[in-house]
Amino acid sequence: MKLFFASDLHGSLPATKEVLQRYVESGCDHLILLGDTLNHGPRNPIPEGYNPPQVAEALNMYSDQIIAVRGNCDSEVDQMLLSFPMMSDYAWVLLESGRRLFLTHGHLFNSDKRPPLKEGDVLAHGHTHIPVAQYQSGIFIFNPSSVTFPREGHPASYGIYQDGCFEVFSLANELLISGRL
To answer: Pfam families attached here (predicted)?
Structure first.
């Protein structure tokens, strides 16, 4: 199983097109969206190429491959544009190793406020716009950062999981960080 992670698109059409191109090139089985998909939110500037309807249209072409969760900037109005469900605060995925992967945006559950996880589980979230791939107190924390508003000097990025390895890549396909289960 090969998974592609993106978070915090915030309605940017150029960023979404880049993500979808990288997703197709990656050969991943599923595209996981970790929230804040269409709306820029009140604390962020309007991103370059802000066009939520066209972002929804582009993502809908892959609706049968998407697993998505709701971010703090996502709403029921956004869901009306999308043909895949994205209003759940979290989702579980079972990895081939038998480990559990907890998907969430990061505003409700994160590395500081964890859901009930057991040692070896994975918590994947966005929200902070900062890449992470490491163990913290027995739980593997993964954050692909943001393709629209990366923070702390990091480049726009996405993540990939394959064969027990989580990696974060810049949009220029440079490996930024990696961690193994």
So the answer is: Metallophos_2 (PF12850)
Domains identified in the chain, total number: 1
For 22, the domain range is 2-180
Using CA atoms, how far apart are residues 14 and 51, in angstroms rounded to an integer? 9
Instruction: Beginning with the edge strand found earlier in the chain, give each strand of the sheet holding 132-136 in spatial order.
Output: 90-94, 100-104, 122-124, 139-143, 132-136
CATH of the domain at 47: 3.60.21.10
Backbone torsions φ then ψ of 52, nearest 5 degrees: -55, -40
pLDDT digits (tens, 9 = 90+) for 45-74: 899 999 999 999 999 999 999 999 999 999
pTM over 0.85: yes
Confidence of residue 172 (pLDDT cuts 50, 70, 90): very high
